[in-house]
Amino acid sequence: MGADGCGAVVSGPDVRPNLNAMRVIIDGRPVNEADARVSVFDWAVMRGFGVFEVIRSYGVAPFRLGPHLDRLERSAAALAVGLPGRDDLISWVTAVAENGEGQVRIVVTGGGRDPLFDAPSQTIVMWEPIPDIPSPLRVMPLEAPWHPGTADGPLSGIKWLSYAPNMASADMARRAGFHDALLYSRDGFILEGPTFGIAWLIGDVIETPGLDLGILASITRSVLFEIGEHLGIEVREVSAPLERLLAADEVVGLSTVKEVIPIGVIGDREVRTGPVAGRLRAEFLSIVADETGPSA
Ligand SMILES: Cc1ncc(COP(=O)(O)O)c(C=O)c1O
């Protein structure tokens, strides 16, 4: 792993893909990258309609595949998108994970509704290398009026393809010189990053926004509760204003790809990158190693 100093990156290992393994499987068929296509009539292309998951593979072992597939099922059910059988999904994920350390993306498209052309729903399973991740992260707080900010309603907390507001927020933050955005609701509650969750240490308690705020049920965030138990640190779900975060002792970002990383800047405030973030990260990696083997 890279150093945690300012401007450092937590980079994926120097990836040497296993060239014998296929990177892309569509509806169970391994396809060459140049032949990996989706119909222009698919609502995934026309309207961002579909669902997805991103699973990290350590060595060739996917981490917490079960919970990722559970979440995929919940997302698909919310949009009434059909899924292939779970055994098929597991075998396709396992097959592309053979490429080595990386991230495996599952995309299930919504299929088309064109009256003249039937574009069936497609399930794409693909392997990608881990991008370099800056650490500590510098994030720009942004109000997200588009975010449900509540779990009321059937379409909150879904991992769907309609991520344009998320990505536009991240891009806006990058244009302003930050690494990423940190979203808060209309009524001022801290939510999540566009592609990551957040938690902070205040006194001797770790706080993290509650799922009742309509944030994604992050798999990494669920591991944080286990980490808290292992380390004897209480992890509490809260609805908290941005000021609470600015008063925190340490802040971490949470995601499958970022794992647990310190956040060092929030807007114009510097946050201490202290020892607890390091302990949380180390414990996360130890859980990963226990479940996926020594390559983690
Ligand atoms: C909006 C949002 N919140 C949180 C997360 C972190 O979720 P996980 O830990 O399952 O990767 C993601 C991941 O992509 C996300 O898109």
Low-confidence stretches: 1-7
CATH superfamily of the largest domain: D-amino Acid Aminotransferase, subunit A, domain 2
Largest sheet: 9 strands, mixed
Instruction: Assign the CATH architecture of the largest domain.
Output: Alpha-Beta Barrel
Give the topology string: H per helix, E per strand: EEEHEEHHEEEEHEEEEHEHEEEH
What is the terminal separation in angstroms? 10 Å
Please tell me how large the radius of gyration is: 19 Å
The proportion of residues in beta strands is: 25-35%
How many beta-strand runs?
17
Total number of distinct structural domains: 2
Which assembly state applies to the chains in this document?
A: single chain
Describe this structure as you would to a colleague.
Mean pLDDT is 93; it is low at 1-7. The protein has seven helices and 17 strands. The protein starts with 7 loop residues before the first strand and ends with a helix. It folds into two domains: 18-128, D-amino Acid Aminotransferase, Chain A, domain 1 (2-Layer Sandwich), CATH 3.30.470; 132-292, Alpha-Beta Barrel (D-amino Acid Aminotransferase, Chain A, domain 2), CATH 3.20.10.10. The strands form three sheets. Strands 9, 10, 11, 12, 13, 14, 15, 16 and 17 form a nine-stranded mixed sheet that branches. A six-stranded antiparallel sheet has the order 3-2-7-6-4-5. It has helices at residues 43-47, 65-79, 86-97, 164-175, 219-231, 242-246, 275-292; strands at residues 8-10, 24-26, 29-31, 50-58, 61-62, 102-109, 123-128, 133-135, 137-143, 180-184, 190-192, 197-202, 205-209, 234-238, 250-255, 259-266, 269-270. Helix 5 packs across helix 7 (275-292). The protein is 27% helix and 28% strand. It is of the alpha+beta class and 296 residues long. The site of pyridoxal-5'-phosphate has 14 residues, from helix 5 and strand 15.
